């Protein structure tokens, strides 16, 4: 018996389920091991129905990463508004949880996954995603109390993402790095980045204080 037509609400629910499942798959097992068949099986839809939402797995990846952004911004706000946390502790907690994506459920693409996704994207889609990323990192800096003109969002994005990607790459993609000190590396990099953010934040405060 043919399946009845999906309502707009049902389609919206299925699309959201696909994005949520994609985020979990990237965090848990990686994009390479998350085929369309696997995704469809987890959501409970046919492969044909999948293609009524997305033209490829890579297009779904972009939508899933965009879908993740508001959740990450909300998480950053919660940390900044938590009276039990200092500003520094809140920022460090956010960055560390993003680095440990598999444990915290944050989707971070590996080096190979970024290359795979880029090869399958049109230049238009790629540039649109880059602009979304710039906007996201700008909003994140604002939540952390840093004006966009105080730190380039692209620089902040590069520093944060490279830290996350290198951690994810140890030891499989980058076997010459020392996996036994991977956690210490994250601690050091997070402290160094937050040190600079704190310095810039203080500079901004002094400029405002001096009028």
Main pleated sheet: none
Give start-end ranges of low-pLDDT stretches: none
Helix share bin: over 70%
Fraction of residues in β-strands = under 5%
Rg is: 19 Å
- Total number of helical segments? 10
Measure the end-to-end span. 73 Å
Q: What is the number of strand segments?
A: 0
Overall geometry: globular
Helices and strands: which structural class? mainly alpha
Overall average residue pLDDT:
91
Characterization of this structure:
This protein is mostly helical. The protein has ten helices and no strands. The chain has helices at 8-28, 36-43, 47-50, 57-81, 87-99, 101-104, 111-119, 123-143, 153-169, 182-209.
Structure summarized in a few sentences:
This protein is 71% helix and 0% strand. The protein has 211 residues and is an all-alpha fold.
């Amino acid at each position: 018996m043919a399946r009845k037509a999906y309502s707009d609400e049902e389609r919206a629910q299925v699309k959201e389920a696909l994005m949520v499942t994609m985020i979990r798959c990237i965090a848990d097992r990686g994009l390479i091991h998350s085929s369309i068949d696997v995704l469809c099986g987890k959501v409970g839809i046919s492969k044909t129905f999948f293609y009524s939402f997305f033209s490829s797995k890579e297009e779904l990846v972009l939508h899933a990463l965009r879908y993740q952004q508001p959740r990450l911004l909300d998480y950053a706000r919660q940390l900044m508004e938590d009276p039990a946390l200092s500003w520094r502790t809140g920022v460090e907690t956010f960055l560390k949880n993003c680095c440990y994506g598999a444990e915290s459920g944050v989707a971070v693409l590996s080096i190979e996954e970024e290359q795979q996704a880029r090869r399958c994207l049109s230049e238009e889609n790629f540039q649109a995603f880059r602009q979304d990323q710039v906007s996201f990192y700008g909003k994140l800096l604002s939540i952390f109390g840093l004006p966009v003109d105080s730190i380039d969002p692209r620089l902040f994005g590069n520093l944060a993402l490279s830290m996350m990607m290198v951690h994810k790459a140890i030891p499989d993609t980058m076997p010459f790095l020392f996996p036994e000190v991977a956690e210490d590396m994250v601690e050091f990099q997070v402290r160094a980045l937050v040190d600079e953010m704190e310095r810039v934040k203080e500079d901004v405060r002094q400029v405002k204080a001096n009028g």
